[in-house]
């Protein structure tokens, strides 16, 4: 059993990804991504186990996607804006 997982967020529209860090409990990360998907954002998340091959952040590669620094921050800001608009409409 793995004790830590890499948290990877992918923007499927722009084909970019960012490694957000390592965690033992990925519930918040996956639930936030599910919320983003629910409001119509085209994102997915991966929780990859930290192994000897992927012990360094630089060794994690996603085929077909390019690395974008600050992606998770941009997506959470966009998600927050969408949620605030829906509150205003309510």
Helix content: 25-40%
Backbone CA Rg:
14 Å
String of helices and strands: EEHEEH
Helix count, per DSSP? 2
| Structural class by sheet pairing and helices | alpha+beta
Number of strands: 4
Name the average pLDDT.
92
Output the strand order for the largest sheet: 3-1-2-4
N- to C-terminal separation? Answer: 45 Å
Using brief descriptors, characterize the structure shown:
single chain; alpha+beta; 4 strands
What report would you give on this structure?
- With 90 residues, the chain is of the alpha+beta class.
- It is built from 2 helices and 4 strands, in the order E-E-H-E-E-H.
- The protein has helices at residues 27-38, 71-89; strands at 5-11, 16-23, 43-49, 66-67.
- A 4-stranded mixed β-sheet has the order 3-1-2-4.
- It is globular, with a radius of gyration of 14 Å.
Brief overview:
By secondary structure, this protein is α+β, with helices and mostly antiparallel strands. Helices cover about 35% and strands about 25% of the residues.
List the helices and strands and how they pair.
Blueprint lengths: L4 E7 L4 E8 L3 H12 L4 E7 L16 E2 L3 H19 L1
Parallel strand pairs: 2-4
Antiparallel strand pairs: 1-2, 1-3
């Amino acid at each position: 059993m793995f004790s830590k997982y890499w948290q990877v967020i992918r923007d499927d529209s722009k084909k970019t990804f960012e490694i957000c860090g390592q965690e033992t409990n990925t519930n918040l990360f996956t639930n936030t991504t599910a919320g983003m998907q629910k409001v119509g954002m085209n994102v997915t998340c991966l929780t990859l186990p930290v192994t000897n091959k992927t012990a360094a952040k630089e060794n994690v590669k996603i085929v077909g996607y390019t690395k974008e620094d600050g992606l998770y921050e941009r997506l959470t800001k966009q998600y927050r804006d969408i949620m605030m608009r829906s509150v205003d409409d309510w």
